[in-house]
Write a structure and sequence with these properties.
Structural class: alpha+beta
Number of helices: 15
GO molecular function: amidase activity
Helix content: 25-40%
Largest sheet: 8 strands, mixed
Protein name: Amidase
CATH superfamily: Amidase signature (AS) domain
Strand order of the largest sheet: 6-8-7-14-15-11-9-10
CATH topology: Amidase signature (AS) enzymes
EC number: 3.5.1.4
Radius of gyration: 20 Å
Shape: globular
Keywords: Hydrolase
Oligomer: single chain
InterPro entries: Amidase, Amidase_CS, Amidase_dom, AS_sf
Length: about 475
């Protein structure tokens, strides 16, 4: 490997794609580079336990002429099927599963010239905020392998942060794109439901589970989003969307009004996280024509609503596994599933009403602000080997997933949300800032996020894992 080629590992996806278009590098070169780097670093991290480089090389011949990805390698989360590639969903039930067809979003990636070359690790069926499972093991954080990368798109985030990927696909129900982005110092975007076609799915009318792009910069995420968006008749919730998100990132911002909404009325924040986010917002407030305002947004009812939505989704998706092979399901998944099967009509109707009230509260704040801002996660990254945390700043948590509350509450209001790096913990682990826009305003969200990313410049004096060489 020449020094010049290995330097590409630390470059942005946008720059690497420009090299592909200019002919100074070929997809085969990139795949060879990634394969060698994967062999060097992933034994420690376990971000990409399944690879398919031969399949990607076979597709590279035709991919090079297709826009917008033009032969760019892309990681796919192991919750998403790639034809002919082992797809386990992190579950013993699918330990040896070899799908014959790709999911819709993978078809879009390949139709846009993208090359899936690896499957990223995930917790069982994507359930939980830490990436481990009994089939493929635990994933570690590239900033410090003693720590977790979060989840459930933890493998994708760790691959990006370790230089094993330029672009990665993730998914998000309660924060699975944004949480690991925060913990790994990368960028993850949860689009508006319907923006990116999803499926095939047992619950095609569910509006909470979405697919979305991950990258090391806002521009990289915009590049991948351009390839993902659009209507697919097989997904009844998908909507017609024009690409052009990468161009939106390059446009200068006009007046920007950001509402800082703190902990969303859901409880305490770790002081380290609160300080990092407040300092970042203070820096953004100094930009010309930018205003950061403190606003109250009470989403406390999200805790009750999410328990119902989560339980109902689990019941719809996993009830047959509960009946036929319960010994192969995690106990906490069974518990949530059983709770979902037991909800009565009164409970479900109340959750529907409360979810509507959550949106009404957010919409009122959006009347005075383009963007809402809060921490992505209530705590900084914590040590690997534990499935959850029990308390935040002395406050006991009622469920094993309650520490995800700043992301799952945002999922419930149906808005696009992005996590960008904004600082570091005393242990040198990244902390993320979550920015939100009204539904279908991804272009504006990406435009503001890119400007914020440039202003914060959190890696200016930091040696990032993707710049290091094994």
């Amino acid at each position: 490997m020449t020094p010049e080629l290995s330097d590409l590992l630390g470059e942005s996806a946008v720059d690497v794609q420009a090299r592909l278009r200019g002919g100074s590098v070929q997809s085969e070169d990139l795949l060879t580079l990634l394969e060698g780097h994967h062999d060097s670093v992933d034994a420690t991290l376990n971000a990409l336990p399944t690879t398919c480089f031969a399949r990607a090389r076979g597709a590279a011949v035709r991919a090079g002429t297709l826009a917008p990805l033009h032969g760019m390698p892309v990681v796919v989360k192991d919750l998403t099927a790639v034809a002919g590639v082992r797809t386990t969903y992190g579950s013993p039930i699918y330990r040896d599963n070899m799908p014959t067809e790709s999911d819709f979003v993978v078809e879009r990636i390949e139709a846009s010239g993208g090359l899936p070359y690896a499957k990223s690790n995930t917790p069982e069926f994507g359930c939980g905020g830490v990436t481990f499972n009994d089939v493929l093991g635990e994933t570690r954080n590239p900033w410090n392998p003693a720590y977790t990368p979060g989840g459930s798109s933890g493998g994708s985030a760790a691959a990006l942060a370790s230089g094993q990927a330029w672009l990665a696909l993730g998914s998000d129900f309660g924060g699975s794109l944004r949480l690991p982005a925060s913990f790994c110092g990368i960028v993850g975007l949860r689009p508006t439901p319907g923006c990116v076609p999803r499926g095939p799915s047992a619950v095609p009318f569910d509006r909470h589970w979405v697919e979305g792009p991950m990258g090391r910069s806002v521009a990289d995420v915009a590049l991948l989003l351009d390839a993902l968006v659009g209507q697919d008749r097989r997904d009844p919730l998908s909507t017609p969307r024009e690409a052009g998100f990468l161009q939106a990132v390059d446009r200068p911002t006009d007046r920007v009004r950001i509402a800082s909404v703190g902990g969303l009325g859901l409880g305490a924040l770790d002081p380290v996280v609160e300080q990092a986010v407040n300092e970042a917002l203070g820096r953004l407030d100094t930009l010309p024509d930018w205003e950061v305002m403190d606003r109250q947004l009470d989403l406390a009812a999200a805790r009750e609503v999410f328990a119902v939505r989560r339980g109902l989704c689990y019941a719809a998706m996993f009830e047959s596994f509960r009946r036929d092979s319960p010994e192969l399901l995690r106990p906490d998944i069974i518990s949530d599933l059983d709770r979902g099967l037991g909800f009565d009509a009164t409970t479900i109707a109340r959750a529907d009403r409360l979810q509507g009230e959550l949106w009404k509260a957010a919409e009122i704040v959006f009347r005075d602000a383009d963007i809402l801002a809060c921490p992505t996660v209530v705590v900084p990254p914590f040590k690997a080997g534990q499935p959850s945390i029990a308390e935040v700043a002395g406050e006991a948590l009622p469920t094993y997933y309650d520490w995800l509350r700043l992301t799952y509450s945002v999922s419930l209001i149906g808005v696009p949300a992005i996590s960008i790096p904004c600082g570091f913990s005393p242990d040198g682990l990244p902390i993320g800032l979550q920015l939100m826009a009204p539904p279908h305003r991804e272009a504006r969200l990406l435009q503001v996020a890119a400007a914020a990313e440039s202003r914060l410049d959190v890696f200016a004096d930091v040696s990032t894992p993707w710049q290091r060489r094994a």
